[in-house]
Amino acid sequence: MAQFINAKEDLVTEAIDGLLTSSGGALSRLDGYPHIKVVFRSDWDKSKVALISGGGSGHEPAHAGFVGKGMLTAAVCGEVFASPSVEAVLAGILAVTGDAGCLLIVKNYTGDRLNFGLAAERARAQGRKVEMVVVDDDIALPDLPQSRGVAGTLFVHKIAGALAEDGADLQAVTDAANAVIGKVASIGMSLDTCTIPGSEKEDRIGAGKAELGLGIHGEPGVEQVDFSTAMAAMETVVDKLKEHASGDIVAIVNNLGSTTPLEMSVLTHTLTASGLVKQIIGPAPLMTSLDMHGFSVSVMHATPAEHSALAAPVSLPAWPGMAAVTAPPVVPLPDGLTPIEPIPSTNSRTQSIIENVADLLIAAEGELNALDAKSGDGDTGSTLATAARALKSGLDRMPLADLTQLFPALGNELSQTMGGSSGVILAIYFNAAGDACANGASVEKALVDGLRRVSEVGGAQVGDRTMIDALAPALEALPNGIAAAAAAARAGADNTASIHRAKAGRAAYVPEENLKGHNDPGAQAVALVFEGLAKEMET
What residues are annotated to the active site? Predict the structure, then answer.
């Protein structure tokens, strides 16, 4: 799998340098590359308790992304998924620890515990005041004698960081950190494993499955479960967390790497609707696992003091802040947007034709999406199918017996339910057709007038590789019967496969080689509709 890296051995140091050079001078590093990779606050004066965390890289923005006022003083970075050495941790301790002392915040992995623990002993031998806490918030494997440390570690960073920034002494900061650790619970779910640079991706999670409770280094989870929807996935996670959550619950919603913001918002909607949490941090990538397509949720009951510490503002780009879970305010639409509702009427033949067209588009969703992926963003089928479903469900509100009213009603319906340019194009088309009908034009003439209006407004003509390449010949042939129109539509659609330079629509931005040999999806949809109507009328 291709990745945006240079040499594998330089990956971590180059990533750290990228973070430093874009920090505006807020972050510095020790001159110890490649073995000692320590990032620390440029403004640190050692007058307060220092907070140090770290571990293997690959979890960005953790840990270096949380170095700053109100959170960490320093982060000690290892190679990808590898604990930093004792010397690296000791270098970090010696660099930032003053008379107030230092707290090491360590995730519960053997390498981290050993390296941070031994470094702490050596620092104490040199007269430094050092305490260490170990975070073990993962609840995925309850039978383990020692649970793993995962994204709940960030609660400790933020609360201990706020206390240290306010001038609390080392014992108070340590006690507060341990109190948080004692009540944090985390669990994650993923649809795929992560890709370690330089290694083959492990294909462990099968199609239609999700892994529950996998670790942030890609370790196998407690079980693989059937995957159906985001709602079901989040509900599974919430069920696991419920026994660890009571009272005023704060949740961290963490993107494990490559889950899109759109997906994360859908997952968050289910979490907030569950009623489990009162405050939320995220959704955001906070403690990732390279490019893992998954999420995790960490919860804790916050006392008023902990709540204040979590709410304390910090100027770190990676920290999203905490927000109250509230019902979203919904404001009525402005006057003038809602179209005049037509008077419903019935016509069984017209209803049958519309339903048939809708069913054809719904059935063709996958085919049209695949075709559109060759020349666009792969959503033509979904766009048309979504509008078709909405149209079918709203037929009882349509003036089916009056075409002068039906055409504009169809245009208004499609403009509201069909996204992208397709909705507005069809709204123009049907509104113009309705105007022509109202002025006495036949159905065939009205449909041609609608197409003329679309060309005037949108600029597309026959030969531009759009749906017009199929629709225009179909309407021209329609007076000779639906079978003739279907044949003309098919010929027009198939001809678009030989048009290698689109002049309108999104395909106009696509390289010619991507278009060769593939029908335009809009033209294909028109051909499928006419062919389906012709077949129905034959029977």
Answer: 217
Dig out the tokens for 386 from the structure: 């979504």
CB 24 within 8 A of CB 14: no
Torsion of CA 462, 406, 367, 372, to 10 degrees: 50
DSSP string, 387-434: HHHHHHHTGGGSBTT-HHHHHHHHHHHHHHH--HHHHHHHHHHHHHHH
Angle in degrees, CA 18, 20, 25, rounded to 5:
140
pLDDT, tens digit, 9 for 90 and up, residues 293-335 = 999 999 999 999 999 999 999 999 999 999 999 999 999 888 8
Question: What's the CA gap between 115 and 118, in Å, rounded?
Answer: 5
Round to whole Å and give the CA distance between 209 and 228.
8
Q: Please, are residues 408 and 420 in contact by the beta-carbon 8 Å criterion?
A: no
Q: Are strands 223-226 and 185-190 parallel, antiparallel or unpaired?
A: unpaired
Q: How far apart are CA 315 and CA 321, in angstroms?
A: 10
Q: Degrees (nearest 5) of the Cα angle 422, 377, 201?
A: 160
Looking at residue 504, its pLDDT comes to 59
Identify the residue whose tokens are 């918002």.
265
Cα distance between residue 106 and residue 122, in whole Å: 17
Query: With the CA atoms of 448, 454, 455 and 458 taken in that order, what torsion angle do they form, in degrees rounded to the nearest 10?
Result: -170
In this predicted model, what pLDDT tens digit does every residue of 364-414 receive, in sequence order? 999 999 988 877 677 888 988 998 999 999 899 999 999 889 988 888 888
Closest CA to 44 of 67, 15, 16: 67
Give whole-number Cα distances, 358 to 280, 355, 389, 472, 512, in Å.
Answer: 42, 5, 7, 20, 32
Residue 99's region, left for phi above 0, alpha for psi from -120 to 50, else beta, is alpha
Task: Provide the whole-model pTM.
Answer: 0.78
Token look-up 């003509």 returns 461
Distance between CA atoms of 479 and 474, rounded to whole angstroms?
10
Q: For tokens 């640079």, name the residue.
A: 197
